[in-house]
Structures are given as C-alpha cells and as structure tokens.
Design goal:
Order of helices and strands: HEHEEHEE
Largest sheet: 5 strands, mixed
Number of strands: 5
CATH architecture of the largest domain: 2-Layer Sandwich
Oligomer: single chain
CATH class of the largest domain: Alpha Beta
Number of domains: 2
Strand order of the largest sheet: 2-3-1-5-4
Number of helices: 3
Structural class: alpha+beta
Strand content: 15-25%
C-alpha cells in the first residue's frame, strides 16, 4: 500500500511539474514575441529616420551643419551704447537669426543664433564694430567667443 501511494504521489507530482513547466514555456514564448515586436518597431523607426533624412536632402533641407546654433559672446569693457551698436550690427547679418543682449558693467553677453561656427561669428563681429579686433579676442571656442576691450 505504501508503494502504491508513493508511486501515485510521484506520478501526480511529475504531472503537475510538467504542466507548470508548460505554463512557464508559454510565458517565455509570449515575452519573446513582445521582444521581437519591439525590435521590429525599432528597426522600422530607424529606417523611417534614414528615409526622412534622404528625402529632406532631396527637397533642399539642410542638415545640422547649416542649422542655426546658439553661440555666446562675452564682452568686457564696453558701455551700453557700444553693446547696442554691436547687437544691431549682428542682427543685420544674414546668418544671424536672433540676438539676445544682457548688459553688466563688469561683462556683457550676447546670445546669438548663428548659422555657422564661432570663427565665422568673430569675423562678423569684427565687421560690426571697430572696437573688436584680433587683439581684443580672449578665446574662440565651439560654444562662443570671449572678448576684452581695453580703452
């Protein structure tokens, strides 16, 4: 009798273990389907981005290279009137889309939306004011320009 109970217990135990394993396999397959779908969506998104970039190039849109980026110009040693002159001179430049001016006696800033790099902006600044020369520049970096004018 004991043998029969042990055999039945083992039989039913194995049956339930097999059904539990089947249930875990179903969960695993469902997760794999979700992962595959996610990968397909990512691939489609990447492909759409590439196609959009190609179409943008065909239709005449410029890339990030020609997009207006913000450059900061730090200027020391100018009064408000001179800063306004420099600001309005920059606004008349074709490559400048916006200029925001902040004046302080210790040092002023111009936030310039410019289509080009800092070197090109410095050349435009030299054309707008005789105060700005190669000797007055302190730094020209990717983010902006530092100028110190001594009178």
């Amino acid at each position: 009798m004991k043998k029969l109970l042990i055999i039945l217990t083992l039989f039913f135990g194995c049956t339930y273990a097999a059904s539990a394993q089947g249930f875990l396999d179903k969960i695993d397959r469902a997760l794999n389907k979700v992962e595959n779908t996610s990968n397909k969506v990512d691939n489609a998104s990447n492909k759409a981005g590439r196609i959009g970039g190609k179409l943008g190039g065909l239709l005449g849109k410029k890339g990030d290279k020609d997009a207006a980026g913000e450059l900061v110009v730090l200027i020391e040693g100018v009064n408000l009137a001179e800063l306004k002159t420099i600001s309005t001179g920059l606004e008349s430049n074709k490559k400048v889309s916006d200029v925001k001016m902040k004046y302080k006696a210790s040092g002023s800033t111009l936030n310039v939306q410019f289509k080009g790099d800092a070197e090109q902006l410095f050349e435009a600044l030299k054309k707008t004011s005789p105060l700005i020369t190669d000797e007055t520049v302190q730094a020209i970096e990717e983010e902006g320009i530092a100028i110190k004018i001594e009178k």
